DNA sequence: ATAGGGTTAG
């Protein structure tokens, strides 16, 4: 090739690079005499950047730098942005030093690139220094500052600057919208987008894509469809990227048909569009379809594999996920931190402790242990496996935390019954989000659920509820999950007035149509005996599910309204909602109240034979109660003896209770012996047996029993009741005779509940109040 | 400068 002049050479280099022939371009560049023409050098470097060979561009620059060549402004700013992109901050700082040393003239563009560089390597202070010293600024300067703050996590500073900007362009708006969106503030992002349109700023393709992302995570199908229309109108729909983002939005909204439709409109599929399609099917439970598409993909990259592995894990198919991981390694595809986090999250149960350890080993082998997401997954995995020790060890040795790490360790403690430590960590968290608060509140709820942990941890449902009030006072606002927890806590302690107040707030905050919130409301109203209100919520639901029906049925059965249970069950069947084991507990309880032995037996039979639900201890207890209350004590006992699963104290307790009614001391003693064997300190069994013996006037036996109880210190079990009167909470212990307002409370209660109280007094004199 | 798909906490 003849030696072209610099101008021709530059044109040739640019053309070759645009055609993707970087090596050839370099040959031309090396062949010309006037290599040092900044134009040619810039063209060559630009060519490298265009083809994704940033580091070669940097090498070329370094070569010229050492040979005493003075780059122009254009080269400098380009090299600075390459350093920023490569995360080579040292390189960038060297260039900065070079500029200062040589006292080179610096224009706005170079300063802008410097700011960008410093933000990229998190030296916010240095970026600010450059910004403050600039004699002149342009839109780019402001924009790079805004996006720098935004991506360095100072949304406030970014917004502040954004408001102060003398003029904005589409990119400035986009940076701000994108910052809010990627930090999880989708609503703010959308708000800003609407403001942008109001101000008459023209959105571009990127704007719409960010808005689509916000729609995806908020599942705003209608808005998403609107953006789809805009993309079509403006002609951007032809761009594959746009279609990919659209598909993703439809996936998150669960619109598989639209996902497939958009996919079909793409004329040339690439690895991204294929992977999204796989994700679409996998994330919507169509794992077989996903697998089929995955296997038929023309080519795959790590992400395609990750999508499939995550799909298996999300659908509970751990074995397939682990198998694919092996295939991946065999096929020379290197798993990365995304692969491992998915796999580790699949090991979050006792069943997979061994696999979990193996994956942990693999993490160490490939050196991913200091990755924050990996650490987070490990904390969760060990926590869920009941291994708080290892969870803590991981947490303590992690080099860097994010909100998820903190939340994960809190969850690890709450799910292992250490609410105290969980709260201690929660209070120390440097940043908290909605999920962190909900995790803590859910932890209180979980740990006050059963009496055993309640005694160990001392946590009550009131703690969950007061934590909820604390949350309401915080800068974060509760979401549907929070309301769900609060209402469940309220249900457990029968806090009717508080439930009503929380109910109001769910309406105000727009969560009343949430199915989970509705179900929690039915439950709490049912538990409090406010069945009209429970029914009202139920009837206002557009799509009550099995849980809604069960909540209502449980409400009626717990309040002894057997015929309502049976009526509603008939309606449930007509509506086509399938019953589950909870449904049958209500049905059997109802039959027990109504003395409908035959009906109950039919339900019990149908449960297993027609609905394929194997009876649990709870169902057996119901059957024993049903037969026992009807006086069929022998049949009740033989049910227990023939149970295919081990009976617990509650099952024998049902039998003992029936014996108390009928004064059967023979079977009663047998039942009580079984309970004493299972739970040596079960004081209510002692009391029930004592009452049975007393009814038969076996006074000597009663005295002996009392002696045993005294010896075992079972006589004064502090039974505890919560009572809510006129929106005030009161707690009573059974030996608590000095509650300050006791007399006035009794008076109020008496006027409210009258005979009900007398009845409960008569039934159990040891407990002061039980309503 | 913003910029397509994958993960982890309730």
UniProtKB/TrEMBL annotation:
GO terms for biological process: RNA modification. InterPro entries: E_motif, PPR_At4g14850-like_plant, PPR_rpt, TPR-like_helical_dom_sf. Keywords: Repeat. GO terms for molecular function: RNA binding. PPR repeats lie at residues 37-71, 138-168, 169-203, 270-300, 301-335, 402-436, 545-579. It holds the Pfam family PPR. The keyword Repeat applies. The keyword Metal-binding does not apply. PANTHER family: DYW DOMAIN-CONTAINING PROTEIN, PENTATRICOPEPTIDE REPEAT-CONTAINING PROTEIN. This is Pentatricopeptide repeat-containing protein. It comes from Cocos nucifera.
């Amino acid at each position: 090739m003849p030696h072209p002049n610099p101008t021709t050479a530059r044109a040739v280099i640019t053309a070759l690079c645009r055609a993707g022939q970087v090596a050839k371009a370099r040959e031309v560049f090396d062949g010309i005499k006037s290599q040092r023409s900044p134009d040619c050098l810039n063209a060559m470097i630009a060519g490298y950047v265009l083809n994704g060979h940033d580091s070669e561009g940097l090498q070329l620059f370094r070569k010229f730098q050492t040979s005493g060549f003075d780059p122009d402004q254009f080269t400098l700013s380009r090299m600075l942005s390459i350093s920023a992109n490569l995360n080579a901050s040292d390189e960038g700082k060297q260039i900065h030093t070079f500029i200062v040393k040589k006292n080179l003239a610096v224009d706005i563009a170079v300063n802008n690139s410097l700011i960008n560089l410093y933000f990229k390597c998190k030296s916010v202070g240095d970026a600010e220094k450059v910004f403050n010293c600039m004699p002149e600024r342009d839109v780019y300067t402001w924009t790079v500052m805004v996006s720098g703050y935004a991506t360095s996590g100072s949304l406030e500073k970014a917004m502040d600057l954004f408001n102060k900007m003398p003029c904005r362009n589409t990119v400035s708006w986009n940076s701000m919208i994108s910052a809010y969106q990627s930090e999880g503030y989708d609503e703010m992002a959308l708000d800003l987008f609407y403001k942008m349109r109001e101000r008459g700023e023209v959105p571009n393709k990127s704007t719409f894509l960010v808005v689509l992302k916000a729609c995806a995570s908020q599942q705003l199908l209608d808005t998403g469809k609107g953006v789809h229309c805009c993309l079509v109108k403006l002609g951007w729909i032809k761009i594959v990227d746009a279609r990919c983002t659209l598909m993703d939005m439809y996936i998150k909204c669960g619109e598989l048909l639209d996902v497939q439709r958009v996919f079909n409109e793409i004329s040339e599929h690439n690895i991204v569009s294929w992977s999204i399609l796989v994700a679409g099917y996998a994330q919507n439970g169509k794992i077989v379809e996903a697998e089929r598409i995955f296997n038929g993909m023309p080519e795959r990259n790590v992400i395609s594999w990750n999508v499939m592995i995550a799909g298996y894990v999300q659908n509970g198919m751990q074995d397939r996920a682990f198998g694919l991981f092996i295939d991946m390694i065999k096929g020379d595809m290197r798993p990365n931190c995304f692969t491992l986090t998915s796999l580790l999250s699949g090991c979050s149960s006792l069943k997979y402790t061994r696999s979990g350890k193996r994956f942990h080993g693999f993490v160490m082998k490939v050196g991913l242990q200091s990755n924050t997401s990996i650490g987070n997954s490990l904390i969760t995995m060990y926590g869920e496996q009941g291994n708080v020790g290892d969870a803590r060890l991981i947490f303590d040795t992690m080099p860097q935390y994010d909100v998820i790490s903190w939340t994960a360790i809190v969850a690890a403690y709450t799910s292992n019954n250490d609410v105290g430590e969980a709260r201690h960590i929660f209070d120390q968290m440097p940043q908290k989000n909605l999920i962190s608060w909900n995790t803590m509140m859910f932890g209180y709820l979980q740990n006050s659920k059963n009496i055993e942990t309640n005694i160990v941890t001392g946590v009550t449902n009131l703690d969950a509820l007061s934590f909820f009030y604390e949350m309401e006072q915080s800068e974060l606002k509760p979401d549907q999950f929070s309301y769900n927890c609060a209402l469940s806590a309220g249900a457990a302690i029968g806090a009717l007035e508080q439930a009503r107040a929380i109910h109001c707030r769910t309406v105000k905050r727009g969560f009343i149509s949430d199915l989970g919130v509705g179900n929690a409301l039915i439950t709490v109203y049912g538990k409090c005996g406010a069945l009209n209100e429970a029914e009202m919520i139920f009837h206002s639901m557009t799509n009550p599910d099995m849980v809604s029906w069960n909540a209502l049925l449980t409400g009626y059965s717990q309040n002894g309204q057997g015929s309502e249970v049976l009526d509603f069950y008939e309606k449930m069947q007509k509506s086509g909602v399938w019953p589950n084991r909870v449904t049958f507990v209500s049905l059997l309880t109802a039959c027990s109240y109504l003395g409908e032995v035959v009906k109950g037996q039919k339900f019990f039979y149908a449960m297993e034979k027609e609905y394929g639900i194997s009876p649990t201890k709870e169902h057996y207890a119901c059957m024993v109660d049903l037969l026992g209350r009807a006086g069929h004590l022998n049949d009740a006992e033989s049910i227990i003896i023939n149970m295919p699963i081990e009976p617990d104290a509650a099952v024998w307790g049902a039998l003992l209770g029936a014996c108390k009614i009928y004064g059967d001391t023979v079977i009663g003693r047998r039942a009580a012996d079984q309970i004493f064997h299972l739970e040596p300190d079960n004081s209510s069994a002692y009391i029930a047996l004592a009452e049975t013996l007393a009814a038969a006037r076996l006074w000597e036996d009663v005295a002996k029993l009392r002696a045993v109880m005294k010896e075992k210190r079972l006589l004064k079990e502090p039974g505890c009741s919560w009572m809510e009167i006129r929106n005030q909470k009161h707690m009573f212990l059974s030996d608590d005779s000095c509650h300050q307002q006791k007399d006035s409370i009794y008076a109020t209660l008496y006027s409210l509940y009258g005979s009900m109280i007398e009845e409960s007094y008569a039934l159990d004199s040891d407990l002061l109040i039980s309503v």
